[in-house]
Amino acid sequence: MRDLMHKAEIQQLVRDAYAAIQFPAAAGAVLYSREQLGQLPPGAHEWSLGVGNPVAWAALRPGEVVLDLGCGGGIDTILAARAVHPGGRAVGLDLLPEMLQRAGEHAADAGLDNVEFIEGEMEAIPLPDATVDVVVSNGVVNLSARKTRVFHELARVLRSGGRTSLTDVIVDDHLPTEILTHPSAWAG
């Protein structure tokens, strides 16, 4: 697919779209089991804006380190932290400080001590090489104009034998440019 927009422009579209959300609709929460939702404080599922349930497919085990790429309100980070306990930890990465604040509050409400949240870009993950066992991501990779760079970063932070569990959406690159460059195509 052609790179039709610059990274900074796309990031600003994403920032604006998420800043405009006043009342989350828990749209992504329907993708989780009743058991999973029972493990969460209300805010975590209310701010679920994803398109799938990557934790359900990640086969997480106690002791693993999990990176939640684009953690948003923290639903997948919290579920991952519970799944890798004892001995493991979950790291939520997000571009938006306001989402990191929400995720941190939700994790505190859940009583977790094996979770951390860091601000950063998925194209330049602020973690050392080979420090993550599993990467989960829920409807986020599509927000990058540089998807190849994102996958390079995932490979860099994963340990040998590491794995990913990604849920996402795609846009057909045969669509007209005016649709592909519309803010809704990037942040909707």
Features:
5-stranded parallel β-sheet; 9 helices; globular
How would you summarize this macromolecular structure in one to three sentences?
The protein has 188 residues and is an alpha/beta fold.
Structural overview:
Strand 4, helix 7 (147-157) and strand 5 form a beta-alpha-beta unit. The protein has 188 residues and is of the alpha/beta class. It starts with 6 loop residues before the first helix and ends with a helix. It has helices spanning 7-19, 34-37, 42-46, 54-57, 75-83, 97-109, 147-157, 177-180, 183-187; strands at 65-69, 89-94, 115-119, 132-138, 158-167. It is 36% helix and 18% strand. A five-stranded parallel sheet has the order 3-2-1-4-5.
Secondary-structure blueprint of this entry?
Elements: H1 7-19, H2 34-37, H3 42-46, H4 54-57, E1 65-69, H5 75-83, E2 89-94, H6 97-109, E3 115-119, E4 132-138, H7 147-157, E5 158-167, H8 177-180, H9 183-187
Parallel strand pairs: 1-2, 1-4, 2-3, 4-5
| Main sheet makeup | 5 strands, parallel
Q: What share of the residues lie within helices?
A: 25-40%
Q: Provide the structure class.
A: alpha/beta
Terminal CA distance = 19 Å
C-alpha Rg, in Å? 16 Å
Strand content: 15-25%
Spatial order of strands in the largest sheet: 3-2-1-4-5
